[in-house]
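Protocol step 6 of 9: fold each sequence in the batch and record its structure tokens directly after the sequence line. For illustration, a two-sequence batch is reproduced in full.

Sequence one:
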Amino acid sequence: MMRSLLLALALSSSALAEDSPWGIALGAEWSGDYPKFNPLLQEAGVTWVRYFPEWHSMQPEPGKWSFERADAFLASATAHKIRIAGGFWYAAPWSTTDGGTRRVPLKDMQHWRDYVKGMVTRYGKEVQWWEVWNEFNGSFSEGGTPAIYAELTREAYKTAKAINPEVKIGLSVANFDIGFLDATIKAGAADHFDYVCVHPYENLGALANGGERGYLSLAASLRQMLKANGQKEDTPLWITEFGVQSNIAPDEKADARQAEIFTRGYVLSLAQGFDKIFWFEARGPAYGKGTDHGILREDWSKRPVYDAYRTLTAELGVEPRYLGWLDLGGAFGFVFAKGQEHRLVAWANEEKAVKLGGKEVPLGRKPVFVADLPTETIALAKANAAKPFPWGKDYASVKSVSCQLGATNRDEGITQTSPETTSVVHGLDHSYRRADVAKGGESLYAYFRVDPTFVPFGTKELEVTVVAKRLPGGGNAGMNLTYESLSGYKGAGEWWSIPEGEGWQEHIWKLGDANFAGGWGWNFRTDAAGSGADFFIREVRVKKP
């Protein structure tokens, strides 16, 4: 009887929209509520859900399987025309030395092979996309290394393909950790994965401060990394988690911000070629700070981001086709095909009006959808599709880039990503910014991102210069540099004590293992933790030696 049900599900799921990008990632806390939220997800236009019961619940002991929970979950999703993006999640307690489900290495790799075999044998017809672990580079794998992850990936790939060659195996990392992906491929995962999954939460959050330029570099950076490792450049790219939080209680400003960033994030992801995009998550949970990511609140009321999801899927369709971009006088414009119809999605970081075919369209931070596009507008978007995105300059051929800090920063290839961590100070001739050590917390840091055209993947040797001076009348002041390297974020290892005096001083840190991909949304920061006094920052520069 159960095998008949699974056959019926396989036939039914094959009719679902394979090429649709609209996903929701579920957390374990609310996953059991799927009978209630699946109809709501279907109403919003969601066509994919990223979730599957963990190993320990599927195989409570060696040789013993418990399929009921997964069968019911799959049946409900299929009934609501939702496909499942699965995963081989974590470890079974009996497979680890201390009984933990987030610890590696496993006692016996054969246990892992048996688990993968059991999952693919039963569900490989209905669930054909499987990530290996979840955020192995983060807090979900104590003792994890690229070599261990490479072995898990390689064994999952070989085991799954032997059962069903159509099954796809995915690499997955927390944040946008290209360095870990690169190390995993080099450690033995090469040619043993079919797609790559990232979780660019911080890059998405940067859209609140005009971070479109950096966000639009994500797919290109991944493809550069794949090419450098001899992997297929057209490997499918998925975002299997991203999101921003809003307050648990209704909050007009926070809810509007969440919905705005949601739409921007999806559009920018589609425009650069991500195949599937999964918002985290359907409902809750709270994280102890009175906020959560859900498109539904804990009381099941719909947030504005839920309405934004429904609007986006209705406007662009089940399987939207990206046609190309439009530079609307500095505003952002992206054209999609919905069957035979066309839609422009556009917004601006400052209010302005643009003309389209004789019409004036007002733009602001909230994305708007424009139908009935002139033929010449559609043709222009198509002609732009293969061209680099136009927002910002191309710094590929210059030797150095800079950011002069002040009331209005002057960016020449470097952007201060979170200017609110520093305060503006007005001097006699110009303004600059202050690292307010006395406040502690984020005021100890000034964050920067270098234009991706200046630091493509593989750019390792860089010189970072900071121009600063002590606060008048202050005591000892200084800083270190934290930067994005091939092995993650790390300190540059050289503390700079800013010399005494009224004049501006500068210091150079030389880096030999840089990897400025924007893993957490920034490339380097000045770090005043341990400084005895405040200081001013006037300029930062990055140079290729």
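Sequence two, same batch, same settings:
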Amino acid sequence: MKKFRRGFYTIFVILLVIACSLPGNTHLTKAKENDISTKVQPGIEVLLESHLDWIKGKRVGLVTNPTGVDSNLVSTVDLLYEHPDVNLTALFGPEHGIRGDQPAGAYVESYIDERTGLPVYSLYGSTWKPSKNMLDNVDVLLFDIQDVGSNVYTYIYTLGFVMEAAAEFDKEVIVLDRPNPTGGVRVEGPVRDADTVSFMGRFLLPVRHGMTVGELATMWNHEYNLGVNLKVAKMKGWKRTMHFEDTGLPFVLTSPNIPTNDTAFLYTGTELLDDTSLSTGLGTTKPFEMLGAPWINGEDLADELNGRKIKGVTFRATYFTPMFGKYQGQRVGGVQVHIDNKSSINLVELGLHLVDAMKDQNPEKFQMTSSYDSLIGDKRVRPMIVEDRSVEEITNLWKDELEDWVHNIRNQHLLYGPYPAKAQPYKIEGVLGILPYDLELAPGQSKELTLLGFDKNGKKLDINPSQLSWKVEGNIGSINGNTFTAEKPGTGMVTVNYKDFQAKRSVIVAQNIINNIRHSVNPGYARVVFDLNKNTDYEISEEKGLLILTVPYAEIGSPLLSNESKTVTIANSPTLSKVTFDIINGHTFEARFHLKVDKVKYEDPYFSNRIVIDLMNN
């Protein structure tokens, strides 16, 4: 019987080879060859095949979501949890949660994963940066999330916060790299201005950055002197010229409203309709592909846009009724964007053309909010759109600055070819960092600076203080040992040299000003926001029935000065009745949260130029 099976198998193989070689079946052979030649190996597969020594014997924390899968759609969580040589101890989830079931912007709680029994810590909600307690049982953090290539997609900033926490608490970071669905060639839009920051923190990128998450992490580690012990499990087979469908990898929706790789590609451009009275198609089966407004004539709009000869796309008139979100239940006229050639599409110009053409149909009904500044990253754009300036005139605003960023920053940290002209592959270098990352003080305030770094082999630098050379630029303060003391208001730079390493940290010296107090009552918690002129240190203490916030070296600014009662009443919260505030001891701002209970659980997530306190419902 065994001989028969062996002989039958041999005959079957011979017949299969003959069949595949016949003229009518040549497409089968070619298709198979193409599948093999274009198959990209994601970072998780490369890690387990070639770099298992990076994590062997270490406690592993994994930052992931449903996009963290191998080429056979097996979850990275399962691959690591079931591997005999991997000790997976904690899971961390970004916006939408580790299972991807939470809507955009939703407050995500931490919990225990039913499948593995591991703790799952949310990095979108009460905190964006892993805390010390979250990392107590972790030696190395792995990041495995599919990005979409836009500077307003939050996953990459979760990576940034993970890197900051890793440096602060002496943990390693390994990025399991994945493709950029918009490709790695084109870079478009303004480089974000620091005045338009919200979730993005210190990481300022153009709208379309054309980098993988591994390249972003590498760039940030050096450009922002983070001092992180960073490794990247690079993909095998990925080229900058590829779009997602070229990789041979399965596409997993990156968030609830990015269902296909075409959506992931278009998002970077069509998201630029957000923060206006236009619909991005949320609530339909084609979000970010079908776009419009109730007052738009689809046929006229399609004719106008097709007449503009926008490269790589064709527009079809369409009408749709969103099932949720903006214009829910209303008939919306607009267009569907059909992709002809991804390589020739300028996504930022596409988004601006859509806004311009839709606005022109009915300027009276077209509106933009001030949040559009944060969306596109340049405060000059919004007034120019309202003034009906041309798309070409708008994009010329940032042409020189973008080119400088591309050549002098981005192109120094690319891990994959083909490389742009005059660019070379990144060579692993050591890194030196300065903590804290936010050096913003009031006159008279002091801060001890901590140095940390690693050589190109990942070995921690044994820093000898006597070999440090400090320099303060800007006449804003002085350094004694490793302690910086702010003296005069202004902006400046602290620079330190150690052997062949150098690190810099920008400094802002200014009086802390509390400009406003805002609040909202949400399901599960009440949020109180203090708007400041800059980032600052603060303390939170507790007494029975009270939560007390103190900000040193502070004063009350406008419009908060107009609140003569120095009281903010909170309605409809089961835990908080009001917030009272004043200046005590001549220079300290104090806010007292009057609770309806003796004690409350609270969180203080990081926001630039704000203090945010979330009080949970008991």
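Proceed to step 7 once all outputs are recorded. Observation for sequence two: The chain has a mean pLDDT of 90.
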